[in-house]
Every structure is written in structure tokens, then in C-alpha cells.
Design goal:
InterPro entries: BPD_transp_1_N (IPR045621), MetI-like (IPR000515), MetI-like_sf (IPR035906). It is a multi-pass membrane protein. One of its GO terms (cellular component) is plasma membrane. It comes from Rhodovulum euryhalinum. The protein is mostly helical. It has one domain: MetI-like fold (Orthogonal Bundle), CATH 1.10.3720.10. It has 13 helices and no strands.
Length: 314
Amino acid sequence: MLRYALSRLVSLALSLLAASVVIFAVIEVIPGDPAAYMLGLNAAPETVAALREELGLTGSLWARYLDWVSGMLTGDFGLSYTYRVPVADLVVQRLGVSLPLAGYALALSTAIALPVGLWAAARRGGPVDLAVMGATQLGIAVPNFWFAMLLVLVFAVKLGWFSAGGFPGWEGGFLAGIKALTLPAVALALPQAAILARVMRSALIETLGQDYIRSARAKGLTQGQAIRRHALRNALIPVLTILGLQFSFLLAGAIIIENVFFLPGLGRLIFQAITQRDLIVVESVVMLLVFAVIVVTFVVDLAYAAVDPRLRRR
């Protein structure tokens, strides 16, 4: 198990190094000068040059890359061109919204998908299975921003149970914060729950067809007992993969939902930074999100080893 974990850590470090090079290179080839953009078309050349010097844009690409990477290793993500505050402060503020939102949506998705997928697999081919498959197909096909607008129309405009957008801050109380995140979390969770339910159903059906399940049934176990004692554990391996990918998506890919509900999260920060050409914010936040994705993948790999003992011997 230790050898397996160390090999995954080495892979994680190499992936982060490659990602940092790609992100920095992509950001650097974007046309336009951030200093000229900030000062406007009529800015004097010497003023633009002074601002470029202040922003650290005059050094070589190699020196700027090393400064950026070494700064991130020490927790210094640089200074935002637009807000004139450390990027780390902006990230910490926005994580207070994006991280609970992603966790809330993942919890809702899992709570819906696992029992639904298990229920459909146990009744394969029946009316319940067909209804679940139809509902999940609809959930996959419909974009989450459409779900978001529908939820706002019904629960905010018509019923008035929730606000249509905005976030009061956690200082306004835990319940107020959770209430503000409920509609966005549901909008994010429904399509993910549809995907996860289908994966759970397929994995469980495949596992139920194995010889050891038939042997367990021949020894007198009911279908429910065979599922709980033998099939469910092995069916969780592909489910863990989807759960890891979903958390990464929910953390990094909620840009549209955060803009629909006017939530001050990381997705909205990236969107604003792109429109304002605040490149240091874009590359630092994207790198942070890549790090989160890779770490989640590492945790999922360890979960594989915990579920499947064969991996511990590698």
C-alpha cells in the first residue's frame, strides 16, 4: 500500500509540473498587453512601460515562470492587476463559497444517485428501472443552467422560498448561507446525480452477473443480502471514479451557475479576471483548481486500494 501511494505521489508531482508549464504558456500567448488594457487606449507609452515594470511583466518568460512557481510554493500567488490585492486573499475569500457549494452539490448528488441506481439495478428490466433510466437520460440531456433558471422561476419567483441570487456571507449565519447555496447546489447536483445513478446501476448489474454472486445466491442468500454483502463493494470502484471527477467538476466548472446566481466564488472570479485581463489571477486560480483535481484523483486512487486489495500488492 505504501509503495502504491508513493508511486501515485510521484505521478501527482509530475502532473503538477506539466500543468504549470502548460498553463503559463497558454496565458502568455494570449494577445494583448494587460498594462495597456488597464490604462486604456490613450495612455502614454511611458506610463504603460512604468505599469508593466510595476506588474513584473518586463522580465524574461523563464524568470517570470520561476518567480510564479516559487511564489505558489510559498503561498504567494502574486498581486492582482485589477484589485491590487494578493491573489491568495481573493482565492481564500472565494473558496468560502465555492468549496461549500461543491461539497453541498456532491452530497446531494450522492444521496440521490446511489439509492436510485441500486434500486434500478435490483429491478432490472421492470417499470422502476425504465422510469429511472428515462429520468436519468433527461437529467443528462438538460443543461444545469436551465435547471438553475427553472429553480429560480419556481422556488424564488413563484413560491418565494429562496432568494434568486446573491450570498449573504457566512457571518450572516450558517443557515442563511446554506439557504443561499441550496438552489445552486440542486442545479449542479441533478445532472451529476443522473450520471452517477446510471454508473451505479451499470456497475451493479455487471457485478450481479459474476459467478461468486450466483454462488452466494445458491447458498441461500436473498438478492438484497447478496448485494449488500458482496456486490456493492465491488460495484463501488467505477462509482468512486465518477465521484472524484464530479467533485473536481463541481469545484472548477461551476462558472455558469455562479454567474446565474451571482455567487462570489472561484468560477465567477475566473470569469471576471478573464474579462478584465487580470492574467495573474487567471493562471493562479486555474493552477489551484488543477491542483485540486489532481489531489482528488490521488485520493480516489487510494480509495481504489482500500476497496480493491489487489491494488495494494502493486
